[in-house]
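Retry 2 of 3 after timeout on previous attempt. Resubmitting structure tokens to design endpoint.
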């Protein structure tokens, strides 16, 4: 799933001169009765969930928690919805959405965990503005996370790791550290993580706890 879709999807709609074709809808509010079978708000967010391997396995292993995925690639969303329906994972849901437009539809202090794994690196400096990970993103994550809630990060691009840590330090609202092997609480892996393991590509896991 790591391939670029339209660069416009990574820019807030308010900063574009006109809405591009196929730009994901912006969302201000959601009726959770229409999202999850139990009608409750999400407990967990998976931002940039790709084809949803991690999200789906998390949902199956944690039936007591509602997990909401967000992804800008519509093909990934359609795939995940088909699996959710086929496997009857009522605690999983996904949105075709670009998180650069904020998460206004998520209540404050309501989320226990946020996953942000293997984002598009946008390595060229002139393209860094397309990275969703910035202080505004962290401000939204901090707003929706419960006190002590955790933002989990993974990347196999050292420059992205350095960049993310610089932004975390600039924002100042999280305590963060690399996860030791036995500290990572999830036995299932993303597609990109499995790819990195097969190819011997090193990657890092960062645990960021809301202050």
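Retry 2 succeeded. Sequence:
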């Amino acid at each position: 799933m790591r391939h670029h879709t339209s660069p416009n999807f990574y820019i807030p709609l308010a900063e574009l001169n006109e809405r591009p074709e196929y730009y994901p809808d912006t969302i201000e509010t959601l009726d959770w009765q229409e999202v999850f079978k139990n009608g409750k708000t999400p407990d967990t967010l998976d931002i940039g969930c790709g084809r949803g391997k991690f999200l789906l396995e998390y949902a199956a292993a944690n039936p007591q928690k509602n997990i909401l995925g967000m992804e800008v690639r519509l093909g990934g969303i359609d795939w995940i919805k088909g699996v959710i329906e086929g496997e009857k994972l009522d605690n999983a849901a996904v949105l075709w959405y670009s998180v650069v437009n904020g998460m206004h539809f998520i209540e404050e202090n309501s989320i226990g965990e946020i996953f942000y794994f293997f984002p598009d690196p946008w390595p060229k400096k002139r393209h860094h503005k397309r990275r969703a990970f910035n202080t505004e993103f962290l401000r939204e994550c901090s707003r929706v996370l419960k006190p002590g809630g955790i933002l989990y990060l993974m990347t196999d691009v050292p420059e992205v790791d350095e960049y993310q840590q610089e932004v975390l330090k600039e924002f100042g609202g999280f305590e963060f550290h690399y996860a030791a092997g036995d500290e990572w609480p999830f036995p299932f892996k993303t597609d990109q993580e499995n790819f990195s393991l097969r190819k011997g590509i090193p990657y890092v896991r960062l645990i960021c706890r809301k202050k």
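Attempt log closed. The longest strand covers residues 145-155.
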